[in-house]
Design brief:
The complex is a heterodimer of chains A (426) and B (146).
Chain A lengths: L5 H22 L1 H9 L21 H6 L13 E7 L7 E6 H17 L7 E4 L7 H13 L2 E3 L6 H10 L4 E4 L1 H13 L11 E4 L6 H11 L2 E8 L4 E6 L8 E2 L4 E6 L6 E2 L5 E7 L10 E7 L1 E2 L11 E2 L4 E2 L4 E3 L2 E3 L1 H12 L5 E8 L2 E9 L9 H19 L4 E5 L14 E3 L4
Chain B lengths: L1 E10 L6 H9 L6 E6 L3 E7 L3 H10 L4 E12 L4 H11 L4 E11 L2 E8 L2 H10 L4 E2 L1 H8 L2
Antiparallel strand pairs in B: 1-3, 1-4, 2-3, 4-6, 4-7, 5-6
Classes of the chains: A alpha/beta (426), B alpha+beta (146).
Chain lengths: 426, 146
């Protein structure tokens, strides 16, 4: 499937798309109602391009349908539930039939194969087992591939390191930040990861960067691969990097990707950056039609050296729900972050406040002064303000007022940092 | 010949000055002299204290940004033109003054000023060549008495 000629791949996609839209229309009342509102029926889907006429599904739909409202299979056919922690209130529940679980395992087998895992490998699966899809998703895939799986789950760092060393682990699955923690703790304990047989890391479940990849690879001597997935679609295994490490290939025959303008919803061509929207082409228990992932990326259609015909997604740097529109300009907090980082070298604590004064949007960035950038002269501090404002303007095209703050005055948060305050009454 | 000055970043808001001053006061650290530069947004408090190491530690432990800067204490005649003499020397040699403030101590008809130069070493050399007195920490200590 990974190397199909494009015409054949597009044909499979269309056939599956028509079938899944039919299934959702027949079995999911919310989806049927939305098609009816648009005076559409499944037969209107004559080409893949017609997909753009169908309504989106968003995270709130899953929350509103809690727990079983979007199922397209009767409960007797459901063999598995997973759930993702909602940031507010009820979690989001997803369900799988036996065939869905098998399909998912197949996607994970393809993921492992893409980065060079094979039977005989010893896989330490440090993704959490339980309602989270990461643990069981990687587990079923690695087992189906014929690898030897250690279902160690997350946490207990010292035991992880002991097992890795004593079992001769060759592949690890976890979040990239947890792996860095493992490697650093390892060196404190006198275990140099470079001396271990470990050669592949399958890292996902959180956004990470190329510089993090370099750091991981330098520190541990392994190859670090980016795996992409989300529980609303299936879990891990929606897209996975090949050994060329140039971005995850979407398993397009199972998960149809589109890129849209997050503000207007209009489809964007390959290569252009926008929000990733995915339609599941095979899922029985819970088909997702045009699910808005909120992840901002682009589809890369240029051929990959590995020969896979599957398009890749470029590194996900941010999410569309973080997007602010200021004076008509789209702004992502990550752009401010990049500008601050460019000036200071390390990321200072910062906060963004958007307001509206006399009908004009104002953008203020509060930045905590760090010892490296504190000057005892007013001129020195004003120069810093100027540099920061200039860097922000050159990245975003917006003029920001920079307010320098004393250390530890901006709020710290344990979980997701709240970086943005939008005071506009729109 | 250089003195250590502690500079503190302050946010321009009520109470910003009180916090660090109280910390120093409660630790029995006396401000020999200080100056406050302020803009609409922020302020920089510069202080000279005897035990600057203890003061810096205390301030930093309490979350303040306290940076050490080298400054130069220069004796100045307390009469019209006293300051001009010094500035003339500095100007002639292209020495850049970032800011200046005064000590409260006085001996005879001589006062003392704190100068922050871009290049304090060059400034000291030129001042000494021009026979202008630069006070080191010991001399300052002596003049402070006790």
């Amino acid at each position: 499937m990974d190397f199909l000629p494009l015409e054949q791949l597009r044909q499979i996609q269309l056939t599956r798309l028509q079938a899944i839209v039919r299934r959702a229309y027949d079995r999911v009342p919310l989806f049927r109602r939305r098609l009816e509102e648009r005076r559409l029926v499944p037969d209107n889907l004559r080409s893949v391009a017609d997909l753009a006429r169908l309504p989106f599904t968003v995270k709130a739909d899953l929350r509103d349908a809690y727990p079983f409202g979007l199922f397209a299979s009767p409960l007797q056919e459901i063999v598995r539930f997973h759930a993702s922690s909602g940031t507010t209130g009820k979690p989001i529940v997803v369900a799988y039939t036996k065939e869905d679980v098998d399909d998912w395992a197949r996607a994970m087998v393809r993921s492992f194969c893409a980065c060079g895992v094979h039977n005989g490998d010893i896989v330490q699966n440090a993704y959490g087992y339980g309602l989270f899809t990461g643990g069981l998703g990687a587990h079923y895939g690695a087992e189906a591939l014929g690898a030897s799986v250690i279902p160690i789950s997350g946490g207990n760092t010292e035991r992880q390191i002991m097992v890795m060393k004593d079992f001769g682990v060759t592949v690890i699955c976890c979040t990239p930040s947890y792996f860095l923690h493992l490697a650093e703790r390892g060196s404190e304990l006198g275990v140099n990861f470079r001396d271990l047989p470990l050669r592949i890391g399958v890292f996902g479940a959180e956004p990470w960067t190329e510089s993090m990849r370099r750091r991981i690879e330098e520190l541990s001597g392994i190859k670090a691969y980016d795996i992409y997935g989300l529980s609303e679609i299936v879990g891990p295994g929606v897209a996975m990097e090949c050994q060329a490490q140039t971005g995850p290939h979407m398993f397009e025959d199972m998960f149809y990707p589109e890129i849209i303008d997050p503000a207007t919803g209009a489809p964007l061509p390959d290569g252009q950056e926008g929000e990733l929207v995915i339609t599941t082409l095979c899922k029985r228990a819970m088909p997702m039609i045009r699910y808005r992932t909120r992840d901002i990326t682009s589809l890369v259609a240029t051929p990959c050296v590995c020969g896979r015909t599957l398009r890749r997604i470029s590194r996900i740097s941010r999410r569309s729900d973080d997007m602010l529109i200021i004076r008509g300009v789209n702004l992502f907090p990550s752009q401010i972050e990049a500008a601050l980082l460019a000036v200071e070298g390390t990321l200072p604590h910062y906060q963004i406040t958007v307001d509206r004064q006399q009908g004009l949007d104002t953008l203020e960035v509060q930045v905590e002064v760090t010892p490296e950038f504190f000057s005892d002269t007013v001129g020195g501090m004003e120069k810093l303000q100027g540099k920061l404002a200039h860097a922000i303007e050159s990245v975003t095209g917006l003029r920001a007022a920079i307010r320098l703050m004393a250390p530890r005055t901006l709020q710290r948060s344990e979980g997701k940092a709240r970086r943005v305050t939008d005071k506009r009454q729109l | 010949m250089k003195l250590k000055q502690l500079s503190l970043f302050l946010q321009n808001e009520p109470g910003a000055l009180t916090g660090p001053c109280r910390l120093l006061a409660e630790a029995g650290i006396n401000l020999i002299t200080f100056s406050l530069a302020d803009t609409r947004q922020f302020g920089i408090l510069r202080v000279i204290v005897r035990d600057w190491e203890a003061a810096q530690r205390l301030l930093e432990e309490n979350g303040h940004l306290a940076k050490l800067t080298d400054v130069v204490a220069i004796e100045v005649e307390d009469k019209p033109g006293g300051l001009v003499n010094i500035l003339t020397v500095l100007e002639r040699d292209g020495i850049n003054v970032e800011y200046v403030y005064a000590f409260t101590l006085k001996q005879g008809n001589k006062g003392v000023l704190v100068f922050r130069f871009t290049d304090p070493d060059a400034a000291i050399r030129q001042l000494q060549t021009a026979a202008i007195r630069v006070l080191d920490a010991e001399e300052l200590e002596r003049r402070l008495g006790n």
